[in-house]
Amino acid sequence: MTVLDTAQMPLQTPPSPLAVVRDERGVVTLTLNDPGRFNALGSEMLVALQQALDAVAQDPSARAVVLAAQGKAFCAGHNLKDMAAHPDQAWYQKLFAQCSRVMLSIHKLPVPVIARVQGMATAAGCQLVAQCDLAVAAEDASFATSGIHYGLFCATPSVPLVRNVPAKRAMEMLLTGDFIDARTAQAQGLLNRVVPASALDAEVEKLLQSILEKPRTAIAMGKALVYQQRELGIEAAYQLAGQTMALNMMDPAAQEGAQAFAEKRTPEWKR
Known about the structure:
The protein contains eleven helices and ten strands. It is an alpha/beta fold. The chain has two domains: 13-212, 2-enoyl-CoA Hydratase, Chain A, domain 1 (Alpha-Beta Complex); 216-262, Orthogonal Bundle (Lyase 2-enoyl-coa Hydratase, Chain  A, domain 2), CATH 1.10.12. A six-stranded mixed β-sheet has the order 1-2-3-5-7-10, with helices on both faces. The protein has a four-stranded mixed β-sheet with strand order 4-6-8-9. Helix 1 (43-57) links the parallel strand 2 (27-32) and strand 3. It starts with 17 loop residues before the first strand and ends in a 9-residue tail after the last helix.
């Protein structure tokens, strides 16, 4: 019998719940990598997401983020088993604050965030899709705010949901917890594009290529403006939009674009 000296054996590091890949174009792909738990948003996953988003926010050469997932599910939301094991209000408040910070980081990033949805997205997973700036899904993906089935109204998921989906449609999802398919989600405004699963990566790449052709400064200013003005009255929104456009026009990329238009040529932007 062979006896192994475990003290001499290397310790196996558990796989990270999030895989981060950055390409030469500045596209950062964040892949939820905990398929055994349906990529649930436990504390470890939220910490990894927050660190990755913070890094993108500090990277002036980043151009876009793709949020993807491994396995059958995109994200099943919070882990109810963990929540049941911690019947403490302070613990819950910390968890939901941690999740809200991740969502707000997506919202505040100066680059577009595209959800690449290959499967089920429920509760906070549906919230994650709604919080992204753009979303592309496979035809067999499905969406629900299913907490109500377990006596928990999906309060935090409702925040981006009602900013994507008409009020009565959102309320139906929140009150029933029923799933909707990808085509329905697209018709209601939760998704931009729906394609066969085999075409999902190609469709995301089409969006990326279109975004990467535009100046980063204009993209960043435009994203911030769209979300800020939505929370304002119409007069304040127009004032903010006018200030943003004037500032945008002072950027060299916008000056080059205007000059190229006048000269009937293609803009020559620095990549």
